[in-house]
Amino acid sequence: MPHPILVSDCMYRSPLTTSPDTNLVKAISLIVEYKLTGLTVAAEDGSVVGILSELDCIRAVLTAIYNDGDPDHMMVRDAMCTDLNTCAAGDSIVEVAQSMLSSGQRRRPVVEGSKLVGQVSSNNILWALMEHSRAKRFDSKAPR
C-alpha cells in the first residue's frame, strides 16, 4: 500500500464500554441491543482492563447454568478476558488486521498510554481496506 491506512482513519472514537463491576446480564443486554461483538472493559480512570466478547458471555452463562448458578449474579469481571491486545491510533491497519487474524480477536481497544481513545473492529478494518482498494482502482483508471 503506497499510503498506510491508520487505525485513526477507521476507529470508533467513542465506543460503548462497560466496567468490571457491571452486572454481566446488563453488559450482555448492551451487546445484544447494539449488535456488538463485545465491549471494552474500562476502569473508572479510563484505563483498559479487559475485553468482554460474545464468546466470553456465552461461556460464563453456560458455566453458571451448568453449575446451577444464576448469570444474574455474575459481574463483568467474572467473564472478561484480561489478556489484552491493544493498538494505537497511529498503527497501520494492515498490522492490526494481521494481529487480529493471528489471535482470532475481532476488536482492539485503541489506547494512548493506558487510556482508551477508541476501538477498532474487524468490520472497521474491512471497510477501510475496501475503501483503499476502491480508491486505488479509481486512481489507476484516471487519465494521466
Fold and architecture overview:
It is a single chain. With 144 residues, the protein is an alpha+beta fold. The chain is 38% helix and 18% strand. It is built from four helices and five strands. It has helices spanning 24-33, 54-66, 93-103, 122-141; strands at residues 17-18, 38-42, 48-53, 107-112, 115-121. Strands 1-2-3 form a three-stranded mixed beta sheet. Strands 4-5 form a two-stranded antiparallel ribbon. Helix 1 links the parallel strand 1 and strand 2. Helix 3 (93-103) crosses helix 4. The longest helix has 20 residues, at 122-141. It is elongated. The chain starts with 16 loop residues before the first strand and ends with a helix.
Main sheet: strand order = 1-2-3
Beta-strand percentage range: 15-25%
Q: How would you sum up the major sheet? A: 3 strands, mixed
Shape label: elongated
* Number of helical regions: 4
String of helices and strands:
EHEEHHEEH
Poorly predicted sequence stretches spanning 5 or more consecutive residues: none
Radius of gyration: 18 Å
Q: State the total count of DSSP E strands.
A: 5
Distance between the termini: 20 Å
Structural class by helix and strand composition: alpha+beta
Overall pLDDT score: 90
Question: Helix proportion of residues, in percent?
Answer: 25-40%
